[in-house]
Design goal:
two-stranded antiparallel sheet; 6 helices; globular; cell membrane
Length: 147
């Protein structure tokens, strides 16, 4: 079944970069004031993974499928049955589909997901299939600029 207005690869990548910087900059500034040094080293450890995972799981639940980056790009995460997202959907999508599977497959699942989003008609990646979700353009913003 074709999903309504599936979000493409480019929008998803840009939204992820925006979310990365939206999370990293404030935490880096806080660490600067605590430690007295400016460094992004903390993003290569478990601290970053936990913060990123919490953000990408909790924020779309609270904001009906949006993260800040997705909102800026006018795309959102939706359930395939068009109901509201649940904690189960987001845990399966983010924890199982994006974290555990990436470790188990040594990153190969990320590469496969890229090709799935580019070439599949419904633009669903592995983590979308696992979580029962898809990424869609938000029709409320059709023809409107949010900037």
């Amino acid at each position: 079944m074709m999903r309504k207005n599936p979000g493409g690869f480019g929008e998803r990548v840009i939204a992820n970069f925006l979310d990365f910087f939206i999370i990293v900059l404030p935490f880096t500034l806080v660490l600067y004031f605590i430690r007295g040094e400016y460094s992004y080293d903390w993003t290569s450890g478990i601290t970053w993974q936990v913060i990123d995972l919490l953000y990408l799981t909790a924020v779309p639940l609270m904001w009906r499928g949006y993260s800040i980056g997705k909102y800026m790009l006018k795309i959102k995460v939706k359930r395939i049955d068009e109901q509201n997202l649940t904690l189960k959907n987001m845990l399966l999508r983010e924890v199982v589909g994006k974290v555990l599977l990436v470790y188990i497959t040594f990153g190969i699942s990320n590469i496969v997901s890229v090709f799935m989003v580019i070439f599949r008609e419904d633009k669903r990646a592995i983590h979308d299939l696992i979580g029962g979700t898809y990424v869609s353009y938000d029709e409320r913003f059709k023809g409107k600029s949010i900037f």
